[in-house]
Design brief:
globular; Dimeric_a/b-barrel; 120 residues; 4-stranded antiparallel beta sheet; alpha+beta; 4 strands; Alpha-Beta Plaits; 32% strand
Length: 120
């Protein structure tokens, strides 16, 4: 039953991408000088689940450094730049940033313009 649900979620995500073009991307590079005191990956995934439901958001993704360091990149993919910009001031995003600051993370933020059609 569980694998069936995962397949359904992947299909739903593919269907969303078929109908949308990525116009904007935001990234948060998150790192720690010392080993984090918390389970950072679980924290990031928890917040990604909330962030990806924002209007205009096509997806959020998490990437981890392959060098074994405590470094991650959280990327958001958007169909609408204005909705991405509005998203930066939401309670979900500010709560996420506050929690990272509380965990003593170093955070670098970037945003990019894009015009990428997702192939079907």
């Amino acid at each position: 039953m569980r694998s069936h649900q995962v397949q359904d979620q992947a299909f739903d995500r593919q269907q969303r991408f078929k109908r949308m073009t990525i116009t904007s991307i935001n990234t948060l590079e998150i790192s720690f000088l010392e080993s984090p005191r918390h389970d950072v990956e679980a924290l990031l995934l928890k917040h990604i689940e909330q962030l990806k439901n924002a209007p205009g958001c096509l997806s959020y993704a998490l990437s981890r450094s392959t060098k074994g360091t405590a470094r991650w990149i959280v990327s958001g993919y958007w169909s609408n730049e204005d909705q991405m910009t509005d998203h930066f001031c939401t309670a979900a995003m500010t709560g996420f940033i506050d929690e990272l600051i509380g965990a003593e993370a170093s955070i670098a933020f970037a945003r990019f313009a894009a015009n990428i059609d997702i192939p079907a």
